Amino acid sequence: MRINPRCSVNKETQVYLVGAGPGDTGLITVKGLKCLQKADVVLYDKLVNVELLKEAPEDAELIYVGKQKGSHLLPQEQINQLLAEKACLGRIVVRLKGGDPFVFGRGGEEAEYLQSQSIPFEIVPGVTAGFAAAAYAGIPVTHRDCTTSVTLVTGHAKGESAEEPKLNWSSLALGEGTLVFYMGLSNLNTICRELMANGRSDATPLAIISRATTDDQLTMTTTLGNACQDVAEINVPTPAVIIVGEVVSMRDQLRWFDRNQD
Ligand SMILES: C[S@@+](CC[C@H](N)C(=O)[O-])C[C@H]1O[C@@H](n2cnc3c(N)ncnc32)[C@H](O)[C@@H]1O
Q: How confident is the model at residue 5 (pLDDT cuts 50, 70, 90)?
């Protein structure tokens, strides 16, 4: 990659877009941890477990950019510019993002911006919340007996109203594939209604996993037909993922995390 001529870069200069994982600090990758340990600057999001920041050098600059649904402390354009600005000072910059940077994490937009500025970057994948939540809830997202596919879906697509995400419901409802919805809790009503209207049985098992992989993990299981009523009865904290599919019923046998906590 051609180095940006306006930057005082040296060969150490690099932006690392690092996935911090879903919450359990043990779920960051070894490579991600090594990046953090040599960082001069760390820009981190709301969903990052702040315990991980202790891994950065004592004199590292830690910048909270506070991204969460509906409220960005800094708009995305300013985050992009800040990344470039810090890198252009010749610093090792870690952009620490919850889960995986490329799964509903705007990592693609940040990488595009860095590329447009000719600033060198690397992407360090992370364990995405949907897969981690499923694993910690004892729900195999695929299983030869039930399903051969899994789809990650946003419950809150770009530019659409919070109430009505415009998804291709007929293709999502089709077949038996597992669906994992991110940012979907506030649209649970729409999700259940559209999946049933497009052919999924109201008896399809559904799980909601909140604060996955942390000591506060809360897992509830219900069905597509009963989910809204059941959720109304308890206050489910965010962040949460919604898993729809027959695999959810395997939790009865395979739940291990909350069983170990009992
Ligand atoms: C903006 S997306 C970021 C996803 C992230 N890049 C990833 O790969 O996990 C935020 C959504 O991820 C999900 N999420 C993140 N961390 C979670 C956790 N610990 N437990 C449950 N859901 C989580 C929620 O659906 C939340 O609304």
A: low
pLDDT bracket for residue 69 (50, 70, 90): low
What is the Å distance from ligand 1's center to 105 Cα?
Answer: 9
Evaluate whether 47 touches 211 at the Cβ level (below 8 Å).
no
Q: Give the residue, by CA position, lying nearest to ligand 1 atom 21.
A: 240
Residues annotated catalytic, as ranges: 45, 67, 183
Any ligand 1 atom below 6 A from CB of 150: no
Domains and CATH numbers, the chain: 14-124 (3.40.1010.10), 129-261 (3.30.950.10)
**Residues 105-148 pLDDT 10s:** 999 999 999 999 999 999 999 999 999 999 999 999 999 998 99
Phi, psi at 159, each rounded to 5°? 75, 5
Cβ–ligand 1 distance for 188 under 6 Å, the answer no
**Whether the bond into 239 is cis, omega within 30 of 0:** yes
Q: How far apart are CA 260 and CA 262, in angstroms?
A: 6
